[in-house]
Amino acid sequence: MIKVNRKKDTAIQSHFPCFTDDEVTICKEIRRGFSAESIAKRLNMTIRTVETRKRKIREKMGLKKEETIITALYLLEINHQ
Prior knowledge:
The chain is mostly helical and 81 residues long. The chain has helices at residues 10-15, 21-31, 36-43, 47-61, 69-80. The radius of gyration is 12 Å and the shape is globular. The termini are far apart.
């Protein structure tokens, strides 16, 4: 089994305190470049669960369907420095 660091990401949490722990973990995995399938395997979830959480993350971030979470996280990281 792959060990995933589930510690909270303060940059993500400070901008989106409404994110659940799983949503923060998924954001971290997306930022690391993992696909939904890889994230599902790493977190012992179904792909459908990961996709649902990604949809909720987009909604909470105010992203349109075509906007990607990775781009938003990258911009958040730049602005946080």
